[in-house]
From TrEMBL:
InterPro entries in alphabetical order: Homeodomain-like_sf (IPR009057), HTH_TetR (IPR001647), TetR_C_34 (IPR041483)
Upper classification of the organism: Bacteria, Bacillati, Actinomycetota, Actinomycetes, Pseudonocardiales
Organism of origin: Kutzneria chonburiensis
Source organism, top-level taxon: Bacteria
Protein name: TetR family transcriptional regulator
Record-annotated DNA-binding residue ranges: 36-55
Length: 218
């Protein structure tokens, strides 16, 4: 029994080592799209053939990081709100924007999850991701509903806007090396200079204010 417990602990520790390695590589290489399992296992100090004992594929490993990103975002929002109440639309948007911008890998993975990660793992792993992501989403809505003057419906509309803006803006602000060279050659296409956090803040604030405006019938 003791040996089995040690074995489970060892497996959990090695899986964690792989996740930490993947996260570090994503930051160093400029995005999750550049990660390979070979590089992850080398960084984690494991034999390449051993990774399958912990993750069935690169997609499963990255989906685990995306799931953790939801938990990190929820916890950051709760910490940012603290005991405050009466947040106006601008401050509500700032809570969402500031906290998600501080999680660059999560912003990056928000693009990859619907494009490939969810569809390239087995159904039970996809189910677990959905359960945990939706639970974190609902926790965020609940926290903001208690802290903001915005209605729950408005918050439920603002949240997907934050996710969409963060996913798209992060990719545009972190172009591939080919695109970065192209933008150097054609400066007017210079998305390489795209300032991610300020643009996210401006658009999210405008969306929050727009959601709270009452449009009179014409």
């Amino acid at each position: 029994m003791q040996q089995r417990a040690r074995s489970a602990e060892d497996k959990a520790r090695r899986a964690e080592d792989l996740l930490v390695a993947a996260q570090a590589l994503a930051v160093e290489l400029g995005g999750a799209r550049h990660i390979t399992l070979a590089a992850v296992t080398e960084r984690a100090g494991l034999h390449p053939s051993g990774v399958r004992r912990y993750f069935a594929s690169k997609e499963e490993l990255l989906l685990e990081l995306a799931e953790r990103g939801w938990h990190q975002w929820r916890d950051a929002i709760r910490a940012e709100i603290g005991p405050r109440t009466g947040l106006d639309p601008s401050r509500t948007a700032a809570v969402l924007g500031d906290t998600i911008a501080a999680l660059p890998l999560f912003c990056d993975l928000l693009t990859h999850v619907p494009l490939s990660l969810e569809g390239d793992v087995d159904i039970e792993r996809a189910r677990r991701y959905k359960i945990n992501a939706f639970a974190a989403h609902d926790d965020i809505v609940q926290a903001l509903d208690q802290a903001s003057v915005m209605t729950r419906e408005q918050i439920e509309n603002l949240l997907p806007a934050a996710l969409a803006f963060a996913a798209n803006f992060w990719q545009v602000a972190h172009p591939t090396p080919t695109l970065a060279r192209l933008y150097e050659q054609v400066p007017q296409w210079g998305h390489v200079a795209f300032d991610f956090a300020p643009r996210l803040s401006r658009l999210l604030t405008a969306t929050a204010i727009g959601l709270t405006e009452t449009i009179s019938p014409g």
